[in-house]
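Here is the promised in-class demo. Please do not try to memorize the tokens; focus on the logic of going from shape to residues.
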């Protein structure tokens, strides 16, 4: 942006987001650990050509990136099921979005600087939500996969047999459930109060949940 426009925006206190909501569609995907966010996202990618960005995956990649100054911090938060300071996660998402837009993609929603993103496992805490909406891009909606702790626990323990994840064990899972209830539920309630949540019961089979998720996303894209 030319410096003069920056200056005017500053004086008028206009917030300029990195990505224009009119061109870039963002859908947040939330739900407890093991609710099926990642699984459903991969189906929705097939349906609609989204770029799927999992905040947890980006954090794990950063944790293992050589020379990262955040490796230890991220590792500790993940093991303890606590939330990584938002600046780290927001920046990783912003960078990944910029890269995808720069690269461009074939298919619906990606011509002329446009793009569509499923942001999975984010925002997990109110400060992340406010910062992202204000500085990065306004989200169109939250897709909320809800089910019982019993279902989530069974799925996570099953996944833990092969995932190699340091947090798919009973002790970490308990902590992650606590963080979800105490820190992430208020985020979902915040968006619910704005009328921006599509809640989907994700207790059923992958296929049945997918049908509902697809319909909810179609409704948003048609708006
Ligand atoms: O979404 P996923 O289960 O892969 O996230 C794993 C961990 O990454 C979380 O338990 C948390 O420690 C961290 N995380 C975070 N902020 C996010 C997403 C994930 O701190 N928005
Ligand atoms: Mg996931």
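The designed amino acids, position by position:
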């Amino acid at each position: 942006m030319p410096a003069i426009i920056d200056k005017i925006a500053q004086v008028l206190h206009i917030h300029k987001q990195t990505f224009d909501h009119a061109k870039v569609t963002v859908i947040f995907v939330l739900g407890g650990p093991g609710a099926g966010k990642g699984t459903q996202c991969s189906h929705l990618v097939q349906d609609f050509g989204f770029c799927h960005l999992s905040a947890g995956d980006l954090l794990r990649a950063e944790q293992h990136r050589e020379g990262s100054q955040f490796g230890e911090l991220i590792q500790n938060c993940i093991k303890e099921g606590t939330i990584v300071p938002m600046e780290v996660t927001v920046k990783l998402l912003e960078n990944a979005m910029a890269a995808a837009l720069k690269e461009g993609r074939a298919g619906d929603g990606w011509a002329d600087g446009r793009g569509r993103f499923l942001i999975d496992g984010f925002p997990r805490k109110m400060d992340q939500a406010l910062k992202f909406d204000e500085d990065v891009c306004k989200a169109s909606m939250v897709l909320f996969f809800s089910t019982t702790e019993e279902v989530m626990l069974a799925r996570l323990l099953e996944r833990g047999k092969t995932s190699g994840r340091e947090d798919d064990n009973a002790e970490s899972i308990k902590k992650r459930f606590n963080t979800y209830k105490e820190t992430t539920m208020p985020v979902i309630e915040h968006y619910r109060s704005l009328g921006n949540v599509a809640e989907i019961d994700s207790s059923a089979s992958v296929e049945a949940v997918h049908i509902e998720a697809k319909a909810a996303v179609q409704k948003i894209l048609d708006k």
